[in-house]
């Protein structure tokens, strides 16, 4: 399992969505615990990728900051099959 899959699987298992909207710092600690890797840059990039994929709902707070809620029903990104003609080399 890669980082994104392990994060989403853990959040689904623990029903994180029942906790409502939370600050990024809370999710930062959870992700660090799951991956056992506490590099802030890597955690932030992984979290933002999950937000873009729809696993977290982003909401603006009163203080002009953002709070997030886990979305377990996000659709998995569809992988397109690779066209085998891309790998055929013609020397004509």
Can you offer a commentary on this structure?
The protein has helices at residues 3-14, 24-35, 40-52, and strands spanning 56-60, 66-70. The protein is α+β, with helices and mostly antiparallel strands. Strands 1-2 form a two-stranded antiparallel ribbon. Helix 2 (24-35) crosses helix 3 (40-52). The longest helix has 13 residues, at 40-52. It is elongated, with a radius of gyration of 17 Å. The relative contact order is 0.17.
The biggest sheet amounts to:
2 strands, antiparallel
β-strand amount: 5-15%
Q: Report, as a whole number of angstroms, the end-to-end distance.
A: 43 Å
Number of structural domains? 1
**CATH topology-level name:** Arc Repressor Mutant, subunit A
Strand neighbour order, sheet with most strands: 1-2
Low-pLDDT residue intervals, each spanning 5 or more residues: none
Number of strands: 2
Query: Regarding CATH, which class?
Result: Mainly Alpha
Structural class: alpha+beta
Order of helices and strands: HHHEE
Q: Rough shape?
A: elongated
As a whole number of angstroms, the C-alpha radius of gyration is 17 Å
Short recap of the structure:
With 92 residues, the protein is of the alpha+beta class. The chain is 40% helix and 11% strand.
State the main characteristics.
92 residues, alpha+beta, Arc Repressor Mutant, subunit A, two-stranded antiparallel sheet, 3 helices, 2 strands, 40% helix, 11% strand, elongated
Question: What topology does this entry show?
Answer:
Blueprint: H1 3-14, H2 24-35, H3 40-52, E1 56-60, E2 66-70
Antiparallel strand pairs: 1-2
């Amino acid at each position: 399992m890669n980082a994104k899959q392990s994060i989403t699987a853990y959040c689904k298992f623990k029903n994180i969505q029942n906790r409502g909207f939370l600050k990024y710092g809370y999710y930062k600690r959870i992700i660090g615990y799951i991956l056992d890797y506490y590099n802030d840059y890597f955690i932030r990039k992984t979290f933002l990728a999950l937000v873009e994929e729809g696993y977290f709902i982003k909401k603006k707070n009163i203080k002009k900051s953002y709070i997030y809620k886990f979305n377990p029903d996000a659709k998995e990104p569809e992988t397109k099959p690779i066209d085998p003609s891309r790998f055929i080399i013609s020397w004509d």
